[in-house]
Amino acid sequence: MSIASNLERLRNEIADACARAHRSPSTVALMAVSKMHPAEAILEAHAAGQHLFGENRVQEWQSKQPTVSTANLEMHLIGPLQNNKTAKAAELFHAVDSLDNLKTAERLNRAAVALSKTLPVLVEVKLSPEDTKHGLAPEDLATLLDQLTPFTNLTIRGLMTVPPWSEEPETARPYFAHLRRLREELQPNHPTLTELSMGMTNDFRVAIEEGSTTVRIGTAIFGKRIYPPSV
Question: Please, are residues 50 and 68 in contact by the beta-carbon 8 Å criterion?
């Protein structure tokens, strides 16, 4: 199936999931995750009406960006950010959805100041015990949010998480519910904390039921990722 038909099907499925959760489809954004897919696929999705995209690596987006520079799209960094890539990330991305420590926040804010730019960010929370997952421990979240308050060029918009992968979507529900509770607990002191980025191809319906405001979907839009052969 084409990227355009995949997007149409997904939008219908998101609308159905919202209806079951008694939510308006306008409250859930679809992010197309273009990791390991060519710039031409991004352009094809954009031509089909997709505006919001996510990439995992600064260097990968840097290599694709010139090809899609004329397209009016919004690209978020959703993968872990190395401290030595913060300046380039602030320059190339419209938002960073994977902030998880104070040092990176300080560097991002400094870079945003230099660019005269206000950068929206999400804090990534590690709720999974897997070593391969990134993010801040939930017990450290309140402290970090307080520390970020003085950073004038960062806007803390919400939280993001990645649950353990499972073929059974319901396995992810406790992790999504946990992130929602964290936001509800912290929002009174941090009113800009409105977004919940959670849910991918296999479990986005459950994520919507638990309050997700952005679902990050790659495979169901672009097909399976093609990884370069290992050396």
Answer: no
